[in-house]
Design brief:
This protein is α+β, with helices and mostly antiparallel strands. It has 2 domains: 4-121, MutM-like, N-terminal (N-terminal domain of MutM-like DNA repair proteins); 135-254, Helicase, Ruva Protein, domain 3 (Orthogonal Bundle), CATH 1.10.8.50. It is 22% helix and 20% strand. It has 6 helices and 10 strands, in the order αββββββββαααααββ. The strands form 3 sheets. A 4-stranded antiparallel sheet has the order 1-6-7-5, with helices on one face. A 4-stranded antiparallel sheet has the order 2-3-4-8, with helices on one face. Helix 3 (135-142) packs across helix 6. The longest helix has 18 residues, at 188-205.
Length: 281
């Protein structure tokens, strides 16, 4: 699932391509909105909220989309060949005389009144890349369930919005804690650093085509995607296991030497482990 920095860049592309323009093409390829036509409406802008995208139009209408695992918005110039995937994967087209914004594989697509946006994003915690970022509230949210594994708490968008599986693994490494360590067991000094560290990582990467967390040459990430490869700090093989609520297990990477706390047994298969409340997106 895309992280907050990826969604931020998608919002910027949509905003730069469409804002202030009047739509000359509107095509929603989902049954619920198949007959909706927004041509003639001016686009007021697109803003990200956590992992959600809100494209606003005049007359108080908002298009809410979420990329989930495979979705993408692509921007094409007039006459440019569309390369985002086969036509049957297109879910939405917003066109102007010289631009086309094409939404591929969008698993969430809905139109709502702009005044009702809180219905779809009001549950979110402080947005790591938003103007209302509040590190104190984010930390307080994380601490409301001290028994919850740190990795799951970080993915819960009700606590703070924008962290995905990559940043979850990287943040836990930088904090020296396994993703299975209960939030309440994280030393206070490290817990207090967590929101600021998360904010700095996403801010540093929001304009980069390649996400980096290490600051090391030729090494982009400390642990994510590095299963069985040597840890960049101690050379212990990095491990991987599933973590989640059963319905949304996700591969999680960590170094058993650099990170303290509980972890799955060394020979445990990647499968369901513990059941916790589902992590909202």
């Amino acid at each position: 699932m895309p992280e907050g920095d990826t969604v931020w860049r998608a919002a910027r592309r949509l905003h730069e391509a469409l804002t202030g323009e009047v739509l000359t093409r509107s095509d929603f390829r989902v049954p619920k909105y198949a007959t909706v036509d927004l041509t003639g409406r001016r686009v007021l802008g697109t803003v990200p909220r956590g992992k959600h995208l809100l494209t606003r139009f005049e007359d108080g209408l908002t298009l809410h989309t979420h990329l989930r695992m495979e979705g993408a918005w692509k921007i094409y110039g007039a006459g440019e060949r569309w390369r985002g995937g086969p036509g049957h994967q297109i879910r939405a087209i917003l066109g102007t005389p010289d631009r086309a914004a094409v939404g591929y594989r969008l698993q969430v697509l809905e139109l709502l009144r702009t005044t009702e946006e809180d219905r779809v994003v009001g549950h979110l915690g402080p947005d790591l890349l938003g103007p209302g970022w509040d590190p104190e509230l984010a930390l307080a949210n994380l601490r409301t369930d001290p028994a919850r594994p740190l990795g799951e708490a970080l993915l819960d968008q009700r606590n703070l919005a924008g962290i995905g599986n990559v940043y979850k693994s990287e943040l836990c490494f930088l904090l020296g804690a396994t993703p299975w360590l209960p939030v309440g067991a994280l030393p206070a000094d490290r817990a207090e650093k967590l929101p600021g560290l998360a904010h700095r990582l996403l801010e540093a990467n929001r304009d980069r085509p390649v996400r980096r967390t290490t600051g090391l040459p030729h090494q982009d990430l400390f642990v994510y995607g590095r299963a069985l490869r040597p840890c960049l700090r101690c050379h212990t093989p990095v491990r991987v296991a599933d973590q989640g609520d059963g319905s949304q297990d996700r591969p999680t990477y960590w170094c058993p030497t650099c990170q303290s706390g509980p972890a799955p047994a060394p020979d445990a298969p990647r499968r369901r482990r513990e059941r916790h409340r589902r992590t909202p997106t």
